[in-house]
Amino acid sequence: MTTRTEKQEDSMSTATTPTRAPHRDVPTGHKEGRVGAGLFDPRQLVKSLPDAFRKLDPRVMIKSPVMFVVLVGSVLTTVFSFKDPGDWFGWTISAWLWLTVIFANLAEAVAEGRGKAQADTLRKAKTDTVARRLVGDAEERVPGTELRVGDLVVCEAGDVIPGDGDVVEGVASVDESAITGESAPVIRESGGDRSAVTGGTKVLSDRIVIKITTKPGETFIDRMINLVEGAARQKTPNEIALNILLASLTIVFLLAVATLPPFADYAGTHLTMVVLIALLVCLIPTTIGALLSAIGIAGMDRLVQRNVLAMSGRAVEAAGDVSTLLLDKTGTITLGNRQAAEFVPVGGTTEADVADAAQLSSLADETPEGRSIVVLAKEKYGLRERHQGELVGAEWIEFTAQTRMSGVDVDGRRIRKGATASVIAWVGEQGGTVAADADRIAQRVSEAGGTPLLVAVDDEWGARVLGVIHLKDVVKDGMRERFGELRRMGIKTVMITGDNPLTAKAIAEEAGVDDFLAEATPEDKMALIKREQAGGKLVAMTGDGTNDAPALAQADVGVAMNTGTSAAKEAGNMVDLDSNPTKLIEIVEIGKQLLITRGALTTFSIANDVAKYFAIIPALFAVVYPGLNKLNIMGLSSPDSAILSAVIFNALIIIALVPLSLQGVRYRPVSADRLLRRNLTIYGLGGLIAPFIGIKLIDLLISLIPGL
Amino acid sequence: MGPVLAGVLQLLALIAALALAYIPLGNYMARVYSSDEHWRVEKWVYKGIGANPDTEMTWSAYLRGVLAFSAVGVLFLYLLMRLQGVLPGSLGFSSVNPAQSFNTAVSFVTNTNWQSYYGEQTMGHVVQTAGLAVQNFVSAAVGMAVAVALVRGFARSRTGELGNFWSDLVRGTLRILVPAAAIAAIVLVACGVIQNFSGIHEVGQFMGGSQQWNGGAVASQEAIKEIGTNGGGYFNANSAHPFENPTPFTNLFEIFLILVIPFALTRTFGVMVGSVKQGYAILATMFTIWLGFVALMMWTEFAHHGPALQAAGGAYEGKEVRFGVGVSSIFAVSTTLTSTGAVDSFHSSFTGLGGGIAMLGMMLGEIAPGGVGSGLYGMLVMAVIAVFIAGLMVGRTPEYLGKKIGTRDIKLAACYILITPALVLVFTGVSMALPTPPHSMLNAGAHGFSEVLYAFTSASNNNGSAFAGLNANTDWFNTMTGLAMLLGRFLPMVFVLALAGSLAEQKPVPVTAGTLRTEKPLFTGLLVGAIVIITGLTYFPALALGPLAEGLAS
């Protein structure tokens, strides 16, 4: 939303309502504060298997140090098994180590696979288009891939727009469903904030000339394809940091295992390489190492599923850290337009009279405000909506931006409704007087943050004002609760509006936001963002106009509306294809969920090791120090079975946690303390206990195999 | 009164004394490191060493100060010992051999005070007082200075400046350690610890035969030995020697001295970062671990199962009857959970599990409460690690004390936690793999392995206590433990100071309802858990083959 749009509405001169894709006011998939996630289909595992094998390439594996160690371990155990082909234990361990690596790759492949379907749809839109390039006045047909920045191309009804650009001439309706999935066409016109067009979308009517702004291969649709496929994915700062920590833990365990042979030899038992590698793989944080990249991809994917494109993973992470949300009033906090809330009679008339006159005079007003008057009259006063044809001999006066009034002349009555100043002037022209309380009531409505409209009539008793219509911003359902949730999450909300401070304050109070910025100019917005950032806060905002671009670039999370200008889309680090500003809240939740999932699985992974030691250490050393059998608290059946069970558990837990890593850990908007307590209990304590049970169960199964 | 009750009562008295000293001492130390004024005597020192105490230092300048000062210290001490034979006041002892001189010089400069020599048979008055005693003060002051630099890293923002090393060093010595040691020494003298420069006495033994005793400035050295968490005894028997530790009261008093500064530094930390609650959280973490270890140690020692019982007929083997089992357990835990290494009983004679508890205490990195300074910075680095792992679980990139834990910070913290495990495991592994070093072991089997593991654990963590039995005075052990001490002290300092510099440059993140509250008990529990689990996982195999194998045998 731009401040420009706000001001238009303010002056009640909304001759044309802005053209935009319809908002989905109720965010999809959002129930009880949970960020919904795509369902996990086990068949995806099978489908992704070939990709998982392809990822065994060491050059790919090295990116995850933990899994690289497992890969090396698998190769080594296999080599040792070949040397001693009769050793079933070595073969089994090798097989499970390979499975561990493949399961890890599978997790990543499944995560990537989910984006592939969307990428394919996008590719279809990108099919070779033929561009009609303007050379002077002549037109030539060239392939879309040969367009250069600055080229002018013509598109007419039925043409697919060959590349990203700005409309420089004409106006057209465009079908952008290939990108947004939204079938309603949007208007694109030269100049202003609706000039950006995207390659791959289709012109439905009229003719436009487009100036190409992006090189082929770097267009929005290309970037989208890369993003959803994960090809453009770079590790985020937090992911890198976590990888470092995991690598250092891996080194610690590598040392612990590598120094074990001399200790064991001294104790009088010899440890085979297979056993040492099994121990190492069990200890290093394979669970999180295997799932880390899948978690990151799935986080981006959750955004894509909500039709948000994050241009960098950094932005998704930053979203979790946001402590100030700048929300535009219109469209985010309030419904797009003001609505009639009340009819106030003046000078001895009744409410019903006012309602009747207001309804009649608004029948010719097609603006949303006008429609809302008719609706209010029907809902509150039971006045059936009359149609313009029913009233014989009526002369309808349409609302225009110039007169700022609408009305009807019927049965000798001339009824008008409109902006205060216009109606007062009209009454004066008809030789009538304005009741003193009309002005007072209008004033009161203004002070309460509403917009007053006057209803006047000129009949046999002369021209006079009948009453005041109170137009007010209607705060969307549930916004107050959402802001309350945000407050509990530690996020401050600031409402941005072009309204005067009085109006802004009233709406801010009604909506329950923490703060507001009234009569906001782009400079004010920028200053506010900088001020918050100076205090160490991370700021998120949405915007769509060219004048929003600097603020979008300055904000830590800048979500550009897809309906916005290319400058805005370029400046922000996310694009919302639905152009729904409320989505900012969901984006924050997705960012948090991403971080929580990482932390939870890391904690789980490390806590798991305790049980593995209790399985493996007695198995290795009880031969020489029988006392160590006291550590075999799980009562595992044999040393081989104990080691094998730990290795198998270690591999299976990866597969078991794939759905969680893709869907993300459940997030509730509660305080940090409660979140931590909850997650520590589930993933910390659970991580300690679960493997004891898991390893014991696997051991029971193994001990059932005859001959062992 | 039974021995268990006696032990518990002494424990309660100790806790009460520590609690009384906590706030005044902690606040005083915060003032020392924050004040703008210089004492006259300090100005003389600055003039003497040519340092400007008012310039702010970046982390690398601070580190250069630490390393240069310590290098000079090692060199001076080495030469002093090598030249002892020609120095006056040496009680006729000859010069110390190169390997042992290196080992001892490093040992005292790194605040380890590992002793591969018999004090009363090797070091004369000059080396003891002008060399070893001086390092007892300044090595402790260096540790405190580094801790304070890290605290400043948390407290400051948008600057790379961490204070002035020379000023921190001199103030730590003159305003904290010297006065505290003076008071403590007077108390010790009053209680019967000797303080003289007498020569060697020939003393007739109770059972016939004779023995040589020498005097020395024992009380003054004893005081700083404990207060500076040094641990290097004047005599070989350390605090089990009646000249160093004559009565049950001095025994308890010495434990108090060991613990008082490391615990109080958490208050200093809280005051300096502007939230005493954060200091309490760190204190609670340290105290929980310390108390847990004391309880565990008392339990295993009073139960006295293990080979010691069979070998010597009770848990008293290796323990002073003057002190008893209970308070010896407290001493053992306190000395190994700090970087002290003083002993009033012999850890190798503890039960198998008891010896393991002492080792585990050091393996935790000596952070509960740890050495003077080193305990605090070690614990803060662990807090950074814990915050990083668990902090993610509140859905924000992790932050501690208003500082975001970014890639660079975690890299430095990760390097820090790698060092000591690497030193302990690699040195022990190599020693066990080579043919000769195991000959130093006195015992065979798991206990013999424990001797070697203990030696390198103690050296790498700058503890200094020994698991008696091992003959560490060989070229191999003198050199290797020397290297372990050197790397175990200064490599972590490099990473701590770099971390401090990185933190100081950041701008602070404001606290909101979405911030992980690090002053709450939940976080303390988390931190304790993270420390115990991460350390436990690192050393479990090694411990299983040493103390666990021994302790679980019966």
UniProtKB/TrEMBL annotation, chain A:
Membrane topology qualifier: Multi-pass membrane protein
Xref: CDD domains: P-type_ATPase_K
Feature: compositional bias, Basic and acidic residues: 1-10, 22-34
Reactions the enzyme catalyzes: K(+)(out) + ATP + H2O = K(+)(in) + ADP + phosphate + H(+)
Cellular component annotations (GO), alphabetically ordered: plasma membrane
EC number: 7.2.2.6
Keywords for this protein: ATP-binding, Cell membrane, Ion transport, Magnesium, Membrane, Metal-binding, Nucleotide-binding, Phosphoprotein, Potassium, Potassium transport, Translocase, Transmembrane, Transmembrane helix, Transport
One Gene Ontology molecular-function label: P-type potassium transmembrane transporter activity
Binding sites annotated in the UniProt record for ATP: D365, E369, F399, T400, A401, Q402, T403, R404, M405, S406, K417
Primary role: Part of the high-affinity ATP-driven potassium transport (or Kdp) system, which catalyzes the hydrolysis of ATP coupled with the electrogenic transport of potassium into the cytoplasm. This subunit is responsible for energy coupling to the transport system and for the release of the potassium ions to the cytoplasm.
Protein name as annotated: Potassium-transporting ATPase ATP-binding subunit
Biological source species: Streptomyces coeruleorubidus
Lineage of origin: Bacteria, Bacillati, Actinomycetota, Actinomycetes, Kitasatosporales
Gene name of this polypeptide: kdpB
From TrEMBL, chain B:
Membrane topology: Multi-pass membrane protein
Gene Ontology CC: one annotated term: plasma membrane
UniProt keyword annotation of Ligase present: no
Transmembrane segments annotated in the record for this chain: 61-79, 130-155, 176-197, 252-273, 280-299, 323-343, 350-368, 374-394, 415-434, 480-501, 522-544
Domain of life: Bacteria
Keyword check for Lyase: no
Key words, A-Z: Cell membrane, Ion transport, Membrane, Potassium, Potassium transport, Transmembrane, Transmembrane helix, Transport
Entry's localization field: Cell membrane
A molecular-function term among this protein's GO annotations: P-type potassium transmembrane transporter activity
Subunit structure as annotated in this protein's UniProt entry: The system is composed of three essential subunits: KdpA, KdpB and KdpC.
Role summary: Part of the high-affinity ATP-driven potassium transport (or Kdp) system, which catalyzes the hydrolysis of ATP coupled with the electrogenic transport of potassium into the cytoplasm. This subunit binds the extracellular potassium ions and delivers the ions to the membrane domain of KdpB through an intramembrane tunnel.
Family: Belongs to the KdpA family.
The protein's name: Potassium-transporting ATPase potassium-binding subunit
Protein source organism: Streptomyces coeruleorubidus
